[in-house]
Design goal:
Elements: E1 9-15, E2 21-29, E3 80-89, H1 93-110, E4 122-131, H2 135-160, H3 170-174
Parallel strand pairs: 3-4
Antiparallel strand pairs: 1-2, 2-3
Length: 176
């Protein structure tokens, strides 16, 4: 369940100048929604690279959030976004932790509301150590890219899901 819709697994990646690659894999099962419930527009569509989402409808404006409808149903804390960002950069344990922390911003870019009390969100970071990065500025850039790549992977997870067991998928609801 992703904001009332069937969630799924998605991946995304990006290669930066200098040879650093950042990839992500995510299981999208957030309490919040990855789309505007009024227009159907995906919140993180602005991060799309070269038409990768292959959506059938043109971009639509987002509506203002309706906070009164949040958390009005009986809640069971059974949702989570779990995933991993991986890079070929050389990172210390502390640097990998920072990249994972920054990658959590990707959830907030793709889901509303994000990080609720009913989510158990966790992102891990893996680094192969093939490419040296230089200093805090490069680490910060890597973390920012990780957030965008994670958000794109989350969108792919939502788009790859199929309706099953009474849970309707985004594709069946909006992409007919």
């Amino acid at each position: 369940r992703n904001g009332g819709l069937k969630g799924g697994t998605g991946t995304a990646s990006l290669e930066l100048p200098g040879g650093v690659v950042v990839g992500a894999i995510v299981a999208a099962n957030a309490y919040g929604q990855a789309h505007d419930p009024i227009t159907g527009e995906l919140y993180a569509r602005f991060l799309e690279q070269n038409g990768e989402f292959k959506l059938k409808h043109p971009p639509r404006p987002l509506s203002a959030p309706d906070y009164s409808d949040l958390f009005t149903t009986s809640l069971v804390p059974s949702n989570t976004v779990i995933g991993c960002v991986a890079t070929n950069a050389r990172l210390s344990k502390a640097q990998a932790q920072k990249v994972a922390q920054m990658a959590h911003d990707g959830i907030a870019r793709a889901v509303f509301p994000a990080h609720t009390m009913f989510d158990g969100d966790v992102i891990f970071c893996l680094a192969t150590g093939e490419v040296e990065i230089a200093g805090p500025a490069e680490l910060s850039r890597l973390g920012a890219v990780a957030a965008d790549v994670f958000a794109r992977a989350l969108v792919h997870g939502v788009l790859q899901a199929y309706s099953v067991g009474g849970l309707v998928s985004y594709r069946d609801l909006y992409e007919k």
